[in-house]
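Board notes (copied after class):
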Amino acid sequence: MESESHAGHDKHAGHSVAMFRDKFWVSLLLTLPALVWGHMLQGAIGYSAPRFAGSAWIPAVFGTAVFVYGGTPFLKGAVREIRDRLPGMMTLIALAICVAFAFSAAVALGFPGMPLWEELATLVTIMLLGHWIEMRSISQAQGALGEIAKLLPSTAFRVTGEGSAESIEEASVSDLREGDVVLVRPGAGVPADGVVLSGQSAMNEALVTGESAPVEKKEGAKVIAGTINGTGSLRVEVTGAGDRTALAGIMRLVAQAQNSRSRAQALADRAAFWLTWIALGAGVVTLAAWLLIGASGATAIERLVTVLVIACPHALGLAVPLVLAISTTLGAASGLLVRDRRGLEEARNLTTVVFDKTGTLTLGEHRVVAVRTAGDLSEDEALRLLAAVERDAEHPVARAIVKSAAERGLTVPASEAFQAIPGRGVRATVEGRQLSGGGPNLLASLGATPVPELQKFSDEAAARGQGVVYLVEGSRTLAAFAVADAVRLESAEAVRRLHDAGIEVVMMTGDSRAVAEAVARDLGIDTVLAQVLPEDKAANIEKLQRAGKRVAMVGDGVNDAPALVTADVGVAIGAGTDVAVEAGDIVLVRSDPRDVPRIVNLSRASYRKMVQNLWWAAGYNIVAIPLAAGVLAPWGVLLSPAVGAVLMSMSTIIVAANAQLLRRVRL
C-alpha cells in the first residue's frame, strides 16, 4: 500500500525547525533584490528601480540563488518520493519551481516571454515559511517527550553508611543501581523510582501522572523518577533506575505512539497521493488549454506553475498527523499513554466498557468498608480501639484494619499485653481496657452475643461476601466491622461519566456473584460477569463483540492480558503488571478508572478535529485548483504563482491552528 511509506508524516525526514527557519530568512533577504529589480513589483505599483551596469541580471542572479539554496529541501524530497514511487507534496513543489526556473532561464537566453524570477523566489520563500510553521507545530505537539525528559535530574545524592557513619556523595544518575539509597532534598527532582525509607513530604507528579494536587509521601510510599519533591526531605531506596524507571517507560510509549499507524492517517495519505496525480493532470490540462486559446508561453506556464503550487496537498498531509501528535502528547500530559493510535481512534466508537474488578474498580487490598457500633461509641472511636488491638498482629485483615485507621487520620494508641488467640483473634490492653478483636469464633469462645443491630449488619455483610471482625470488651460486643476489597473512591464517578457518554459498563471478575453484585450495586454497573476463569475472559469479550458491541477492556493483571488484546480497545492500568501494560493499546499511569471516560473524550475530540481539517483541506483544493487554472480569467481574476503560494500556506496555517485548539479540550 502506498500509504505505508508515509508513516509518521515522513516527507520531512531529516528536516528540522531550525533548517527551515534559517533557509526562510536567508531566502527572504535574497528575494528582496529580485522583487525590487523585477518586473512584477514595478508594474504593480508603478515605480522604476535604479539602473546601472548589470542591474538587468539582478532578478536572474538572486532568483537562481533562492532556487538553489532555498529549493534544495523540496528537490531532495521530490527525489525521495519519486524513488519510492509515491509522488506527493514535495514532487509538486519541485516541479513548480523547476518549471519556473527552466522557463525563466530560457527567456534569459533569448526565448520569447516574460521571466518568472521574482515569482520563483517569492514562491520558494513562502513555501519555506509554510514548512517552518508546519515543522514548528509538529515539534510543539511532540514537545511532551522533551518536557518529560527534562524532569529527570542529571545527578543524585547517594547515601552510604548509617547513623554517625553516614556520608552523602554526589553521583551521576546513570551510576545509580537498585538498592542504592538517595537523599531527595526539598524542591529537587527524584532521580530514580524507589520506596521512601524515611522522611515525609508531598510530591508534584503532574507531568508524569496528570495529578495536579501534591501527593503525600511517607515511609513505605513509592516515588517516581522525575517527580518534584516538596518541602520535606526523603531518603529513598532505588527500585528502578535509568531505562527501568516509569519515566523511561512513559517516554518509550509516547515515542511508540507517535510512530504508530492510524486508519485516519492512512486515509489522508491516500487522499494526498491521489490529489498529487489530480494536480499533475490539472496542470497539463491547464497548460494545453491556455496554449490552445492562443495565450503566450509565459502566461500558459504561469498558470501551470500556479496550479501545481496551489494544489500541493500540504494542508491535507498535515491535517491528521498534527492532530494525532497533539492528542498523543495531550494524553501523555494527562496520564493517558497511547501505545497504539488505532486504540485511541477506536475509543470514540465504544458502546461497552468492561472493567476487571480487583485492582481496577477496587484497590486490590482489603480495607474496613463499613462500621456499625452499639451504644454511644462512635465509628472512629471503635476503629481507633480495634486498630490498637490489631496493630501487632501479622494477619492481612489486621493490617487492613490498621491501614484503614491511618487513612481516616486516626491516632492509634499504644497497646499492652498483646496476645494472639489462634483461630479466634487477638487481645490486648488499650488505655486500661481489656479488648479483643476477631470473627465469629472469637464471639463463641467469649460467650458474647451481638445485639440485634450488629447481628443484622453482620448478616448483610456476609451476604455481600465481606468478612466481619468484632470489637469485644469482656463479653460485650462493642462494634462490628465489614472488611473487604475496598472500592476505589473514583470508581462511581467513572461509571457515571461513562453512562453520561452513552456507554454500557460491565464488570468481569473471578469473585463470587454475591461479592461482584454488591460492588456493582454500589457503583451502578449495568452488567455483572462473575466467577469468570482467567482463560474465559477473552471469550466473554468475544461474546460481547458478536452481539455487535464495540468493547474496551480495562484490567491490570496477567490474566487480563488475553482480554486486553481481544477487545477493540485494551486499557491497561499502569500500576499493574508489565504483561498487562504491554497488551494494552492505552496505559493509565494512575490507577484511576476516571481516566477511561477521559480517553473517550480525547478520542471524540481528536476525531472532530481530524474531520474538520480534512474537510477544510479537501474543500480548499476543490475551489482553489479551478481558480488557479484561470476559470475566472474572463472576469479579470488571475492568480500569480506567488499568490497561489500564499493561499496554499494560509490553508496550512488554518489547519495547524485548528489542530492546536485541541489543547483546549477538557478531558
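Comment from the instructor: The chain has three domains: 2-143+255-327+610-662, 153-244, 363-487. The longest strand covers residues 362-373.
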